[in-house]
Amino acid sequence: MEQALQCNIGGIKCDKDTCDYRDDSVKVEDYDKWLNKPCPKCSSNLLTEEDYSNVQMLLQTAQMINSMTPEQLEALAGNTDNDEIVQMSVEMNGTSKMKFNIEEQ
Ligand SMILES: [Zn+2]
Question: DSSP string covering 16-85, please?
């Protein structure tokens, strides 16, 4: 069975409005190396501890959802077909708020 929830988190970008620094090649597994690292362009914090813990929380949530049985998922999501994949993407805007976009495929 495919994973119910695909978690596509990756890349790092500077949150400063006036700065366009981003590196999409950064993997979520390597986020700990970016914790509190200054932006190479404007030296503002690229990944705060709050951002980092939000990401970890999200990964745990995805893991939990993926370990659920189809019945549990159905109860959670309503009328979801078992083979339906829900894609969730997350944007972090630098104020440690996350925006969840859930797209049904
Ligand atoms: Zn920057």
Answer: -TT---EEEEEEGGGHHHHTTPBPTTT--BSS-HHHHHHHHHHHHHHHHHHTS-HHHHHHHHSS--TT--
User: Smallest Cα–Cα separation from 34: which of 19, 49, 16?
Assistant: 49
Q: How far is the CA of 36 from the centre of ligand 1 (A)?
A: 13
- pTM > 0.90: no
Arithmetic mean of pLDDT over the chain: 76
Measured in Å, residue 47 CA sits from the centre of ligand 1 at 11
pLDDT in tens, 49-66: 988 988 888 888 888 878
| Ion ligand 1 neighbours, Cβ < 5 Å | 14, 16, 19, 21, 39, 41-42
Paired residues of 95 in beta bridges: none
Q: Cα(1) to centroid of ligand 1, in Å?
A: 41
